[in-house]
Amino acid sequence: MSKLALITGATSGIGHATALLLAGKGTDLIITGRREERLLSLKKELEKEGVRVLTLCFDVRDETEVKEKLGKLPEEWRKVDVLVNNAGLAAGLGAVQDGDTDDWNRMIDTNVKGLLYVTRAIAPGMVERHSGHIINIGSIAGKEVYPNGNVYCATKHAVDALTQGMRIDMLPHNIKVTQICPGAVETEFSLVRFHGDKQRSDKVYEGYENLVAEDIAECIWFVVSRPPHVNINDMVVMPVAQASAAIFHKQ
Fold first, then answer.
1. CA distances from 34 to 7, 87, 109, 155, 177 (A)
2. For residue 39, what is the enclosing H or E element?
3. In degrees rounded to 5, what are phi and psi of residue 163?
4. In whole angstroms, what is the distance from residue 202 CA to residue 212 CA?
5. Using only C-alpha atoms, what is the Rg of the chain?
6. CA distances (Å), 18 to each of 21, 103, 106, 158, 194, in order?
7. Domain 4-237 is of which CATH architecture?
8. Are 104 and 98 in contact (CB under 8 A)?
9. In what order do the strands lie in the sheet with 53-57?
């Protein structure tokens, strides 16, 4: 019987790449995101692999929507084996004294509260079945703090702490918990951070070979495909040209 994975933020970047890879491995999928057109397009692509796909269009920041969509899954979609908490973003880059509180709220509500809302909806079923795997997509920003990253770094430090807490909470229930922390991955990340400024976004990835979404998708598959007795607690992945959040070797 195929495993079932739920991926948040599946309409682009790491979530999109992970959905494609897992489908290629025969995994049935629940894919979520805010852009319905992209979800439906991805669904068609995934179904070519012969897997079942359910699309759910909602914003993880909205607790009511999360409860409505994930709390009332059809019976055949309730046994989620793998939860990939991928939805997340950075908004803005500046000193805290100059910060935009709308950006702060957007990051906190998505990266921390959204992850919690989704986990709260799915984890009880895993506990009841005494089986499951929760994968939180963190960041190198959850391991250190870099200039002008203040609130984004704080949200990813929260993901780091929450993952450790979940590992303890899930331990008696035979549920795996993993955090994957990417460094520089070229996705829509910087474009979103800089509010659609493509010129500024492109500069982030100039002068070195960055990671791509497929690199992180392969890491996710690696941790999912370990034997039942093996749990990868934490994984930090960076390009060869990156030593820390702010230190790169650029040509």
1. 13, 10, 14, 20, 25
2. helix 36-47
3. -65, -45
4. 14
5. 17
6. 5, 27, 24, 23, 25
7. 3-Layer(aba) Sandwich (3.40)
8. no
9. 53-57, 28-33, 4-7, 82-85, 132-137, 175-182, 234-237
Q: How far apart are CA 91 and CA 191, in angstroms?
A: 9
Strand segments, DSSP code E, in the chain are 4-7, 28-33, 53-57, 82-85, 132-137, 175-182, 185-186, 211-212, 234-237
Q: Which sequence spans correspond to the domains of the chain?
A: 4-237
From first to last of its 251 residues, the chain has per-residue pLDDT tens of 689 999 999 999 999 999 999 999 999 999 999 999 999 999 999 999 999 999 999 999 999 999 999 999 999 999 999 999 999 999 999 999 999 999 999 999 999 999 999 999 999 999 999 999 999 999 999 999 999 999 999 999 999 999 999 999 999 999 999 999 999 999 988 999 999 999 999 999 999 999 999 999 999 999 999 999 999 999 999 999 999 999 999 98
> Cβ(63)–Cβ(71) under 8 Å?
no
- Which residues are catalytic, by number? 152
pTM for the model: 0.96
Please give the single-letter amino acid code of residue 121. Answer: A
Is residue 151 within 8 A of residue 35, CB to CB? The reply is: no
Fill in the amino acid letter for 137: I
